[in-house]
Specification:
This protein has helices spanning about 5-20, 20-35, 40-50, 70-85, 90-95, 100-110, 140-155, 160-175, and strands spanning about 115, 185. The chain is mainly α and about 190 residues long. The longest helix has 20 residues, at about 160-175. Pfam families: HTH_48.
Length: about 190
Amino acid sequence: MSDNNFEQRCAIRFCFKLGHSATETFQKLQQVYGESVLSRAQVFRWFKAFSEGREAIEDEPRSGRPSTAKTDENVIRVRDLVRSDRRLTVRMIGEQLGLTHTTVHHILTNDLEMRKICAKMVPWRLGATQPFQSTRRHFGTLENIQSSVTDELKAIPVTEFQNCYKQWKHRLQRCVDSQGNYFEGDNVK
């Protein structure tokens, strides 16, 4: 379950306990989460479940074949392989260990809490999730595009850029110190 879904379920339970209606709860979630809000039907289902006495926010266990590739042994194998050569890609690790790309990625990100460092080199407001207000807008001229982009960049607080470059400098130094073998989340020196 994603963190976003978990947060929204917590909010639904919270609103239920405050005595809000399902409709009010859905409207509040829309204000906070925008387009990433749970569907109205999901909100109403969870609201009903809480009204019937459910306390757990997590999903119920599902039937079907359980995952067998993500074992403690495979987690150790992936960890050891990554530590021996940090330049391996997820696909290369999967091929060497006979695991799927998805399983390796899950082990790296969830179990070993590792991420490639280059994912953090951009200020948070410049990331792929930045919803530019100029999206789906016809600019007409190059000057209009430049003006819109400049306005967006000027709206980012100076402290965001400063923090980004401080973090970038720190990560770059760790990457240099480890000769390019630095993974974020790896606490091994």
